[in-house]
Amino acid sequence: MMTESHVDRLTSQLRRMAAEFRIKPDERIREGEMAKRLSVSRTPLREALNRLVSEGYLTFTGGQGFFCRSLTPERIMDLYEARAAIECEAMRHAVSRASPAAIAQLADDLDRAEPLYERTTDRLALLEMDEAFHMALVRLSGNAELERMLENINGRIRYVRMMGLKMEDGRPGRMGAHRTILGALIARDQDLLLAELRAHIEMRKEDATQAVRDAFSHIYVQAG
Amino acid sequence: MMTESHVDRLTSQLRRMAAEFRIKPDERIREGEMAKRLSVSRTPLREALNRLVSEGYLTFTGGQGFFCRSLTPERIMDLYEARAAIECEAMRHAVSRASPAAIAQLADDLDRAEPLYERTTDRLALLEMDEAFHMALVRLSGNAELERMLENINGRIRYVRMMGLKMEDGRPGRMGAHRTILGALIARDQDLLLAELRAHIEMRKEDATQAVRDAFSHIYVQAG
DNA sequence: GCATTTCATTCTGTATACAGCACTAAATAT
DNA sequence: ATATTTAGTGCTGTATACAGAATGAAATGC
Fold it and tell me: Which fold has domain B6-68?
């Protein structure tokens, strides 16, 4: 693959900080302070911050600098809808383009992941498996742009999804839904596939918006 | 609105240069030369270039710098599919959310644009009217993220669309399609709306991929 | 007491300098 | 003649310095 540069790593680091609310929403980012904190100079820091502006994590106002965008419940809804748009479009094409071999591979991965899925108590691990499945699904469409967009969306809602993860009851349903979706894809049944996928995504939307409200209170409790 | 900064303008300028193929596909961007050409220093130039990396116009490789991404026919197809995904999802929600007043406003705009639409021979003006209609459509969904994404996609396929614009026969069909789409929205007929919109977008996909092939030959004829 | 203005401080915005790496081309060896 | 090495050149990557703008606090006027 391509050489990962220093700015790439810095961007990832800041992206994570923003997504985890380690940078407070609506807060002005003071470059000098942040640069010292991350042990880099302001020049590469600003390059990374500029990338995050284009990725939707930050805003930039001339003369004032960079601000962390807040994740309101409305924006979470927007992102979930965008996610549904991307994934459904991908499936619309995957149903005719995905090779049986690629689908079989994904089914295999699902089988191998299942025991871990049932056993683990690590929410992040659970989420990563879920994300990996959906990314693999989109990859079956052969559309690199849809892949890019989903990656962006996932990054932005990752920690909200994690907070919304209900360990008790969510797991069997989720795993079952993944199997149903894959089944519809194998059967090349577009209507069923799209219906199942959309329902699967919509189901989590409400959990997530509730989660972001909880998250907000957490943040402001921490901050005082 | 928010203060537009110097880097914002620089980003727009470079974005346009990339979209118009004034920066050659796969070409390495030499920062010193480009900085001199645009009469800025390398620091703000690199900030703008970093934004364009995140917007999908450029790539960045550590130790080598920035490269213009080439627009292959495959990527054009990908972008058109992504466009269909965004616009259809937007309509799916607009059908229940858009206020009658907002829809009436759009219908009015369409009426007032029609004479100009029939008369003008300026391809760019034509394209801008088309883009404005589709952006307004998506805005009816109330989803800011879908809006953002469509803006990005439009920027990247703008000049390819312009090349693919057929002045002779495309105009009446296009205008008619816009009216049909709006009619379905007014009737709150989701199925019809989505079908019409998707057909309208798909219809231009082939034109555009052909156009990008033409564009490529143009570029390489110029470059020698 | 409240608003307003002024001043000091701090931060942003950009140029520039320099170190180190990557590419090119010439030269040498096989 | 071709492949490989090596020196040279130019570019990227980052730190730093400095100018100008914005913010906040203190002081003054009403």
Answer: Arc Repressor Mutant, subunit A (1.10.10)
Instruction: Report CB contact under 8 Å: A62, B86.
Output: no
A127-158: pLDDT as tens digits:
899 999 999 999 999 999 999 999 999 999 99
CATH of segment(s) B73-223: 1.20.120.530
**Touching check for B84 and chain A: CB below 8 Å?**
yes
Inter-chain contact A2–B59, Cβ cutoff 8 Å? yes
Domain spans, chain A: 6-68, 73-223
Smallest CA–CA distance from B143 into chain A, residue: A78
Helices B170-186, B100-119: axis angle to 10 degrees equals 170
Whether A23 CB is under 7 Å from strand C: no
Q: Is B136 on the interface with A (CB under 8 A)?
A: no
Task: Determine phi and psi for A60, rounding to 5 degrees.
Answer: -135, 130
Spacing of B32 CA from D26 C1' in Å: 47
For the stretch A8-58, pLDDT in tens is 999 999 999 999 889 998 999 999 999 999 999 999 999 999 999 999 999
How many angstroms is C1' of D11 away from CA of A80? Answer: 43
Q: Is B42 on the interface with A (CB under 8 A)?
A: no
Residue A75 forms contact with B (CB below 8 Å): yes
